């Protein structure tokens, strides 16, 4: 996954834990030296940062003999360096947003085309509710690539017997992510021969999907492990509340219009449902940082309803510490 929050090792995890410094160092130099020895003498350049870490992650997973690897694309999909897996078990596309426009295009349709580039012939793919036009693009891409595409039912559909599914990640937007995760997990389990989790209605490869909605994947009763997984999931830096003495930090990595809107909804629910005391004992400060070619003015405008007392803007400085350890 990417990006990392504190240490680069967060990008390559086994059983949820970043690989150790020792393992990172071992595989880094192994991959680096192998590439150095075999690179083209005419075009003598090493892979760029993200590409190198992707190669290294695949190598780690193969050498450590993981049962299952979950690989998140870096940017887009079609031309992303993660998109070399020819026959994944399943593919998933979460809610689309406008981001990386200089690479992916400046409309939702162009971005959907790029995202749909991860579809593979005969490999089931799932997506969540999308605006009509981008969903049509995904459907068309699935048809082109002979990939059976399904729409995930809302998470409410899995809450049978009045059992509300608890999510470890705050924010209403995480419900569609959870619904997608359930479908991906179910597909993997079915491949492993686990039954009783709802069979997919078969969509024949190449079947004409145009003109009718993407078929809805069946709901099923989540297993106890799935229920626990949704409840225990944590992702630091995403809708995270961090109390530290008199200061409470509300952290999020939102960086698109739709994700900042979701962040505002979460923040208003988590922090602003209490009336602010009039004695000045509570001061609300926005600490804001943005990278890349993002429209910061548009993002800040969305934060106005939060009524911060102060705003602090944090620039991006890169510090190189000669004493730092590998993987930090």
UniProtKB/TrEMBL annotation:
Record's keyword terms, sorted: ATP-binding, Ligase, Magnesium, Metal-binding, Nucleotide-binding, One-carbon metabolism
An example Gene Ontology CC term for this record: cytosol
Enzyme superclass (EC): ligase
Catalysed reactions, semicolon-separated: (6S)-5,6,7,8-tetrahydrofolyl-(gamma-L-Glu)(n) + L-glutamate + ATP = (6S)-5,6,7,8-tetrahydrofolyl-(gamma-L-Glu)(n+1) + ADP + phosphate + H(+)
InterPro entries listed in its UniProt record: Folylpolyglutamate_synth, Folylpolyglutamate_synth_CS, Mur-like_cat_sf, Mur_ligase_C_dom_sf
Top-level taxon of the source organism: Eukaryota
Single GO BP term: one-carbon metabolic process
EC number(s) reported in the record: 6.3.2.17
Molecular function via GO: ATP binding; metal ion binding; tetrahydrofolylpolyglutamate synthase activity
Pathway stated in the Swiss-Prot or TrEMBL entry: Cofactor biosynthesis; tetrahydrofolylpolyglutamate biosynthesis
Membership in a protein family: Belongs to the folylpolyglutamate synthase family.
Protein name: tetrahydrofolate synthase
Annotated organism of origin: Ardeotis kori
Source species taxonomy: Eukaryota, Metazoa, Chordata, Craniata, Vertebrata
Gene name of this polypeptide: Fpgs
């Amino acid at each position: 996954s990417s990006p990392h929050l504190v240490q680069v090792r967060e990008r390559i995890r086994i059983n949820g834990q970043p690989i150790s410094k020792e393992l990172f160092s071992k595989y880094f130099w192994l991959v680096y030296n192998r590439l150095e020895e075999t690179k083209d003498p005419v075009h003598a350049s090493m892979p760029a940062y993200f590409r190198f870490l992707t190669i290294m992650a695949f190598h780690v997973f193969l050498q450590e003999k993981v049962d299952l690897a979950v690989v998140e694309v870096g940017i887009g999909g079609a031309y992303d360096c993660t998109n070399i897996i020819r026959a994944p078990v399943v593919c998933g596309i979460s809610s689309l947003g406008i981001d990386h426009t200089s690479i992916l295009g400046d409309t939702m349709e162009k971005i959907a085309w790029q995202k749909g580039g991860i579809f593979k012939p005969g490999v089931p793919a799932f997506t969540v509710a999308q605006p009509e036009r981008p969903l049509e693009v995904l459907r068309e891409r699935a048809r082109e690539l002979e990939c059976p595409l399904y729409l995930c039912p809302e998470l409410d559909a899995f809450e049978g017997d009045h059992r509300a599914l608890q999510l470890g990640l705050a924010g209403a937007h995480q419900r569609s992510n959870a619904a997608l995760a359930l479908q991906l997990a179910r597909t993997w389990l079915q491949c492993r021969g686990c039954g009783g989790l709802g069979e997919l209605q078969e969509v024949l490869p190449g079947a004409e999907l145009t003109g009718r909605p993407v078929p809805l994947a069946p709901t099923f009763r989540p297993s106890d492990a799935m229920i626990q997984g949704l409840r225990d999931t944590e992702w630091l830096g995403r809708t995270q509340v961090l109390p530290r003495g008199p200061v409470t930090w509300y952290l999020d990595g939102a960086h698109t219009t739709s994700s900042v809107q979701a962040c505002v909804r979460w923040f208003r629910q988590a922090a602003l449902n209490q009336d602010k005391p009039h004695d000045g004992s509570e001061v609300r400060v926005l600490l804001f940082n943005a990278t890349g070619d993002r429209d910061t003015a548009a993002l800040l405008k969305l934060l106005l309803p939060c009524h911060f007392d102060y705003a602090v803007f944090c620039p991006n400085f890169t510090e190189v510490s000669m004493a730092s350890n590998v993987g930090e």
